[in-house]
Task: inverse folding
DNA sequence: GCAAAAGTGTTTCAGGTACACCCATGA
DNA sequence: TCATGGGTGTACCTGAAACACTTTTGC
C-alpha cells in the first residue's frame, strides 16, 4: 500500500545519541568514546548509532546502550530531537538523544577497550563533537527537574548504598551542597528507605549503614497521593 | 564530500506536528484540522508537515505554524520526537512535535476554512489520528511544569488582560480551580503586572481592570536571582 | 433592589533552611 | 589519642492553603 501524499518528500538519516550516566567517585560520570570514523575521527563523542527501519527510536537507543555497555533493561528516557541542518558535519542527520541512568558496576569494561570509551566526570567533560555538549547540558537540566520529583537517582546506585553516598549523588545532580541533617530528615520523613544491618567501612573508620530503596513502599505512598520531592 | 560511514543507512521521512494552543471561552483551545488525504482522510489531526532538507526541524515547525495560522515569531518549543515504527499508517514517519502558544486573536480565520481547521476546547478534544492525542497529553504535562516556573501563559493573551481572565487561564492549564485571593496575592508579591486605568466591562457590570505584563520588570527580577512560581 | 462578577486580609500550618556537637573506629 | 567521616535535634522563617464578606453597576 502506498499513498500519494508521501511521495517526493525528503528523507533523512536518523540517529540516536545516548547520554549514559553513572555515579562514581562521588560524582556523576558520563560515558564517552573516541569517534572511529571521519569526519572528526578521534573526537570525543557520545554513544550513538543510526535508527534502522525495523526498530523504533526507543528500541534503537536501547540497542545502542546495550552495544556499548552490555547493560539492558535500564532507565532510559528521551531528551529531545536535534534537527539543525548542519549539526552533523558528514551529512544531514537528525538525532534523537536519550539519557540512561546506569549502575556503573554493571558496565562491561571489556567493551570500553573495544570502543575506546571511558567514563569521565561531569565536571571534567571535554569538548565533544557536533552538538553533543548541548545534549549533555539539556540532559542535566532534565535530570535536575526529574530527580526532584521522581526517585530516579536510585537507578545510578547498586541494590544497597549508604546515606553519605546518596547525598553526594544528589549533590552531584544539583551541583550544590546539601545540609546533611536536612537531607536525612527529609529522607526519613519520606520513609522509603530500609536500613540494613551491614555497614560500609570503605570510606570511614566508623562505617556507614547500608540502606536500600523500598520500591513497594514508594509505590504505595504514591498511590496514596503523596508527593516525592528531594 | 561523502563519508563511508553514512553509506547504506536507512533513511526516513521526518514530520513535524504542531500542538497549537490558544485561550478562548475561559479554556485552553487546540487547533485541529480534518486530514485531507489518505490514509485516515477526514480524521481529526494536528497541524503537520514534512521537514524539508533545506530547513531545520525548528524551522519546519515555524513554517507549518505560519502556514496554518498566519502567525509568526511566536513562542514555540519542542515536545519530543515520536519514533514508533507504525505510528503513521501510511509509511514509516518519525515525527517531532512542537507546541506553540498563540494569541487566538491573531489567528487568520480565512485559513480555517482553507484547511478545514477549527479550535476546540481541550476538554472536548476528539479522538485524533495516529499518536496525536498522546502528543497533546505530553504537551499539557510540559505546559503545567513550565507554566509554574516561567511566565509563558502571557503568550496566550493579548497585550492587556484582566485578572479574572489570567486566573481562568491558569486554572485551565492546571485543570483545577485556584483561590482568587491567593492567586492575586501571589501575583502582587511578584510585582510583574502593571495595572491600567481601563476596565473590561464585557463580562460583568462592575468591570475588571486591565493589566499588562511588565517584561522589563520580570527580566530584572530574574536577573536578581528571584524565582517565578505560579 | 437584586443578580453577578470584581475585589480585598487574616490566620493557620507545613515544609525549608540554618546551624554545632558527639560518636565510633582504625591507625 | 587523634584524625576522619558518620550520625543526630531544634529554632526560625517563609510560603501555601483555607476561608467570607463588601463593592460596583446594569438591568
Result:
Amino acid at each position: 500500500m502506498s499513498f500519494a501524499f508521501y511521495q517526493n518528500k525528503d528523507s533523512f538519516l536518523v540517529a540516536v545519541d545516548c547520554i549514559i550516566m553513572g555515579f562514581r567517585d562521588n560524582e556523576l560520570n558520563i560515558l564517552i568514546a573516541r569517534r572511529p570514523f571521519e569526519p572528526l575521527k578521534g573526537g570525543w563523542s557520545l554513544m550513538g548509532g543510526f535508527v534502522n527501519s525495523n526498530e523504533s527510536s526507543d528500541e534503537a537507543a536501547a540497542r545502542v546502550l546495550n552495544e556499548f555497555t552490555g547493560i539492558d533493561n535500564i532507565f532510559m528516557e528521551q531528551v529531545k530531537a536535534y534537527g539543525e541542518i548542519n549539526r552533523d558535519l558528514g551529512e544531514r542527520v537528525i538525532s534523537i538523544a536519550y539519557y540512561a541512568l546506569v549502575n556503573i558496576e554493571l558496565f562491561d569494561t571489556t567493551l570500553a577497550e573495544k570502543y575506546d570509551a571511558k567514563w569521565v566526570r561531569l565536571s571534567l567533560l571535554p569538548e565533544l563533537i557536533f552538538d553533543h555538549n548541548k545534549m549533555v547540558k539539556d540532559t542535566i537540566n532534565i535530570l535536575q527537574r526529574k530527580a526532584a520529583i521522581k526517585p530516579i537517582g536510585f537507578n545510578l546506585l547498586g541494590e544497597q548504598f549508604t546515606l553519605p553516598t546518596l547525598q553526594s549523588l544528589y549533590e552531584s545532580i544539583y551541583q550544590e551542597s546539601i545540609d546533611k541533617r536536612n537531607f536525612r530528615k527529609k529522607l526519613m520523613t519520606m520513609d522509603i528507605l530500609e536500613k540494613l544491618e551491614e555497614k560500609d567501612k570503605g570510606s570511614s573508620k566508623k562505617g556507614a549503614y547500608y540502606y536500600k530503596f523500598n520500591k513497594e513502599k514508594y509505590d504505595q505512598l504514591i498511590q496514596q497521593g503523596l508527593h516525592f520531592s528531594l
Remarks:
- The two ends of chain B are 52 Å apart (CA to CA).
- Chain B has a mean pLDDT of 96.
